[in-house]
Design a protein that fits this description.
Elements lengths: L10 E6 L2 E8 L7 E6 L4 H11 L5 E4 L1 H10 L14 H7 L14 H5 L21 E2 L3 H6 L3 E5 L2 E6 L3 H10 L1 E6 L4 E5 L3 H8 L1
Parallel strand pairs: 4-8, 5-7
Antiparallel strand pairs: 1-2, 2-3, 3-9, 6-7, 8-9
Helix pairs in contact: 2-6
């Protein structure tokens, strides 16, 4: 059966021009169409360029995180931005004492902690040194550079936030096809009015 006939939120294994993977049907609204391709990282560049090349006649455009987040908001879908739960300082100290430097001259929440903990009689001079985590790159990083993408750090990855403009990319998803890099999770995504037609054309 044609992959374009796949029901929404259903999955199946398949091939796109000899690239094996799992394909799922998605979409931001009831009217819109989208597909996610779960593939091996080694096949990411091949599939990305295939979709860009074959999608030219359908008006395909690479779209960044800013466009995706805007579409999520319109469809009342949850954001994938990192969130931090709120924990009171004392509970956090009991579970992770190494997070606290009691020798600091002052810190937020010190008054309540003062009543329950013993502090050093003489406080040492404290210097904060930020630890820098290495930001990883997706398999498509070099392809994004070729397209002139602007990047941000997202969940430890260097991700394209925008290629041209949010309005232009948003319009492509609404009226043609948008192409999204989610390869830090093993996924390449297309979405838009002509997404199904593009898939039929390729397969």
């Amino acid at each position: 059966p044609s992959l374009a006939n796949l029901k929404k939120f259903h999955f199946r294994s398949g091939k796109i021009k000899e690239i094996e993977g799992i394909i799922s049907r998605t979409g931001y609204t009831q009217e819109s169409s989208g597909f996610e391709f779960y593939i091996h990282p080694d096949d990411a560049v091949k599939l990305w360029n295939l979709l860009l090349r074959q999608g030219e006649e359908f008006g395909i455009k690479a779209a960044g995180l800013a466009t995706r987040d805007h579409l999520y908001s319109e469809a009342n879908l949850p954001s994938h931005e990192e969130t931090k739960s709120i924990t009171d300082g004392l509970s956090l100290y009991k579970t992770h004492p190494s997070y606290f430097h009691l020798s600091k001259p002052y810190f937020v929440g010190q008054k309540i902690v003062n009543k329950l903990l013993e502090f050093p009689a003489v406080k040492e001079e404290f210097h904060y040194k930020e630890e820098k985590d290495k930001v990883r790159q997706t398999p498509l990083y070099e392809e994004h550079l070729k397209l002139g993408a602007r990047f941000i750090s997202f969940a430890g990855w260097k991700m394209p936030v925008c290629y041209t403009s949010i309005s232009e990319e948003h319009q492509a998803v609404r009226e043609a096809v948008g192409l999204f890099d989610v390869t830090h999770m093993g996924v390449i995504k297309i979405a838009g009015e002509h997404a199904a037609r593009l898939l039929v054309d390729i397969s």
